[in-house]
User: What shape does this take?
Amino acid sequence: MPVTESPRAARRLAGWFEERLGADRIREFIAHKTVPVHSGTIWYYFGGITLFLFGIQVLTGILLLLYYRPTATEAYESVQFIVTRVEFGWLIRSIHSWSANLMIFTAFVHMFSVVFLRGWRRPRELTWLSGIVLLGLSLGFGFSGYLLPWNTISYFATKVGADLAAAAPVVGPALARFLRGGDDVTGATLTRFFGFHVAVLPALTTAFLALHLALVQRFGISTPPWIEERNRRRGAPIPQMPFAPNFFLRELMAWYAALAALGVLAALFPWPLGEKADPFAPAPAGIRPEWYFLAPFYTLKLLPSHIWVLEGEQAGLIGFGLLAIWWSALPFWAVDGAGRERTRLLNGVGVLLIAWLSSFSLLGYFK
Amino acid sequence: MSRRLVWLLAAFPALLAADSCRDCHSALEGPLAAPAAVFARDVHAHRGFGCADCHGGDPAQDDPALSMSRARGFLGKIGRLQVPRLCARCHSDARLIHKFRPQQRVDQFSQYLTSVHGKRWAAGDAAAANCVDCHGVHEIREVRDAESPVHPLKLPATCARCHADAAYMARYKLPTNQFEQYRQSVHWEALARRRDPSAPSCASCHGNHGATPPQVASVAAVCGACHALLEDLYRRSPHQPVFAKLNRGGCSVCHDHHKVTRPSVELLAGPRSVCVQCHQPGSGGAAAAAEMARLIRSLQSELDRSDRILEQAARDGMEVSEAQARQQEGREALVKARVAVHTARLAEVAARAQEGLEIAAQTYRAGQEALRERDFRRWGLAASLAAIALTLAGLWLRIRALERAPAGWP
Assistant: This one.
């Protein structure tokens, strides 16, 4: 009888896969995976939202690849074709651009929530470091992707960015030359950035994302020390929520909310195409990078032309480099030799960094 | 005297050269001191010329009796009638002038002789304008020097110094309203407001050294020096033989001469129409002019309408750059239609206007399509948001059901 044979066949097929993939162990792992429930649980969703937005990036990026042509003569026209002629091309391109920006925003939120909820503590140092690398890769995606439509704003902003890179001491000129594929931003730069954007960065991101997620599974989700301490004193265990389905369904709600936000932004504020870049035209007034580079960009503008024996920009870039290294090494300086947390230093630095990023980004945007 | 100073003086003999003219006149007062005070700024002084090169005499002599001796060629104050020939002594000498500037013209004096100014001068009229009236005396600057009275931006005011002086012009029975009229013209707007030194001024139409009023028959040629296409269209128009026969000045019949105002469709029909000067209301010519005006106004209005809808679409985030680029072609058709008025042929204007109207219709349709697409997107968004809201509500109910069940998480 087909009615009874069909479920039997499906069960046999499932059994065949189970035998080869060991899905029962994965199911077992998921069934026992829990998420701590406390006043800061809401911040746990931002890692998942960032992952969701990355998924959107991959999907829409692949669709854009079907039409995009990475040459100086065709790039702008191909993007124009996508947004004007391809069915729903405007939506895909707009979602790709908005999602990229939201992803970087949620990645920053995720990073700071990890800092303040102490998610970086032993043994999660490598989880933190892999997250920092992923944030750097996201910024790399942003920088390389910004040039790809080959419009006036993106062209000159990339020029400014590459010139800043050239000002870095020792490696600057070679780095800028490597990025640009020459002494100036040209079609060679576009092709190179395209390669970074669709091959090099995705490969690296996949590897580091896998590592990051594996480490999160390996050590579980961290609970802030003051919650642990409070529950220890009360002699009560920290409440836990099953990952599946309870936490996952909530995460799914967050993803839907992010999708709704993306839809609103893409439909009401489609990402503009601008005018085609003309390398021989003078740079238009008010050229500035994307918002996530505005804080360092504006800080560099405020620096004097010379600081000690260095040029202002060089000193600024060295400062930012050292700051990035110091911030990446947070798990190693935020606790003292006896393993006690340097709470004031950590909170102070975290708050200062947020204040600097937000205020200088706003100043850079409006000035 | 130190050894260093001796070397310095030996190296720069010019420092040792005596110029008793400047030394003495600097010490004088009143009009006799003025030339010495300003000559340092004169282009001739910059090129190494001195007072004696025009006035004669011997500047190496300290004794005025010797330095201003007729025996040493002293000419004294140069009379107005002597000025042109004195200037021409050097300025018509190509070998001398080209030492300083190889491209410099040397035909100013011969040109001057052809001018009304020069002809009156030749007839012995000392009041007729000569070199110094325009270029100044003792403080002559290069034409490109913004302080020069003949710098393009200052030239009209320089001409007006005499030509707007009613008392001065009375003896020549010349009108004095040219400068006032010019200051209402589109040419003045370009010169004075936009500070465009290439904008037409007096010399552009009348010439400079050979300044002569153009003959009535030559007006179109004068205007055509800049407006070549318009002159060509006019010459092929039915107006040209008629105006020539009536001895009317071509372009200036409709556009005036000194007071060339910004052209507009108002010149064709309506209260400011210039066509009614010749074409009676109700005549074929007046009807053709009115139809030309209607076509041009219609095209202008259609293009404006397309601009508005495309701007609206662009403001709402729609990509309409192709249609906006097409609008440029429509604007070009409008310019062509306006230009075609100079053919005085309705069919020519209609053809250009029709070309523009077709473009305006296409771009308007593109704008409408963009707004329809915008609305479609917004409805799509509303439907998607409703679906997402329903899903969120479903998920929330599912979570609540899960967590109310006894097997829920502790």
Remarks:
- Residues 33-287 of chain A form a domain with the Cytochrome Bc1 Complex; Chain C fold (CATH 1.20.810.10).
- Chain A touches chain B at residues 34, 80, 83-84, 90-91, 239-242, 245-246, 249-250, 252-253, 256-257, 259-260, 263-264, 267-270, 272-273, 275 (CB under 8 Å).
- The two ends of chain A are 76 Å apart (CA to CA).
